[in-house]
Write a structure and sequence with these properties.
This protein has helices spanning about 70-75, 80-85, 115, 270; strands spanning about 20-30, 30, 45, 60, 90-95, 95-105, 140-150, 165-170, 170-175, 180, 195, 205-215, 215-220, 235-240, 250-255, 265, 290, 295. The chain is mostly beta strands and about 300 residues long. The protein has one domain: Coagulation Factor XIII, Chain A, domain 1 (Distorted Sandwich). It is globular and about 50 Å long.
Length: about 300
């Protein structure tokens, strides 16, 4: 956003075509699907509601969402309900593997070689980069949540106002000097891959699968830039076939439980700069469901 400053280590001035990012692509059991197939698209430009933290509410495709934006935007991306009905539903089995991929390139510049010619079987890449690296320009945890459409409701009509259960997160490792290394961000180099299973214990039904990377904001004034968290949410529509008989565990509500005061959404300036971890830091988005139990979602150090 326009307020980004060059003072902070993690800020990055990119050309407009490379600004920010969106999750746009799924692989199902190792097979990449077409970009935005099964993923609700976004509307651009889109006028968000006015908030104290943003001076320009017109957002382009890859721009961040703020927790004070429209609830629908926070759940699944800007104007996602307008795209829900004409988005396909991916049929999976509980226990199947999903991989996700993002892009920083604007849709007007999308070309086949950023999807279909990528090194090492990745689902997206940047043909304009010498190493074809599609990077992230912000550090933070990558999260995936499931929300079940109410019984009798087509997922293509579901707005995500129910509960969300976290099934995957990818956070950071700690370097020897105590600084932190966000695995998705990787200092704007080649990111980790994002591969996870739909838990075997997931009950049958239609679900939204929410994908996000959250750039935590700051607790400490007077840094004005990004003092609010930035989120980058999109949702896939999936139909889960399952023999599981147990219930889905309790989840969070979005945006109520994903705001500037909920755990993991803001850090100290030192952690913001990647220099250290805050005591007791937990990743945002609630407890993590392993399929067996809900656990606290903390860095494994
Ligand atoms: Cu950004």
């Amino acid at each position: 956003m326009a307020k980004m400053s060059t003072i902070l280590k993690f800020t990055f001035v990119a050309s407009l075509a490379q600004a920010h990012f969106t999750f746009v692509r799924l692989a199902h059991n190792g097979e990449w699907q077409a970009p935005t197939q099964f993923i609700r698209n976004k509307t651009e430009p889109f006028e968000e509601r006015s908030t104290p933290n943003t001076n320009n509410n017109e957002r382009l495709y890859n721009f961040p969402t703020f927790v004070s934006d429209y609830p629908e935007s926070v759940r699944c991306g800007r104007d996602n309900m307008a795209h829900a009905a004409n988005t396909e539903v991916l049929r999976v089995k509980a226990g199947d593997t999903i991989e996700i991929a993002h892009t920083r390139i604007s849709p007007s510049d999308w070309a086949d070689n950023q999807w279909y010619d990528c090194p090492n079987g990745r689902g997206s890449c940047d043909p304009n980069d010498p190493d074809w690296t599609m990077d992230f320009n912000h550090p933070g945890p990558l999260l995936a949540h499931l929300s079940k459409a109410p019984d009798g409701t087509d997922v293509r009509e579901y707005d995500g106002s129910g509960e969300w259960v976290k099934i995957y997160s990818l956070g950071f490792d700690m370097n020897e000097d105590g600084s932190i290394h966000w695995l998705a961000y990787n200092y704007e180099k080649l990111p980790a891959r994002f591969i996870f299973d739909i838990p075997k214990q997931t009950p049958a039904g239609e679900y939204l699968l929410r994908l996000d990377l959250i750039w935590p904001g700051l607790w400490e004034p007077p840094i004005y830039v990004s003092d609010t968290p930035q989120i980058y949410a999109t949702c896939a529509q999936i139909l889960v076939e399952s023999d599981a008989t147990g219930p889905l565990p309790e989840g969070i509500e979005i945006p109520a439980d994903l705001n500037t005061t909920t755990p993991g959404m803001r850090t100290s300036l030192s952690m913001y700069r990647g220099e250290s971890m805050d005591d007791g830091y937990t990743y945002p988005g609630g407890l993590l469901w392993t399929g067996e139990e809900l656990v606290e979602d903390k860095p494994i150090l």
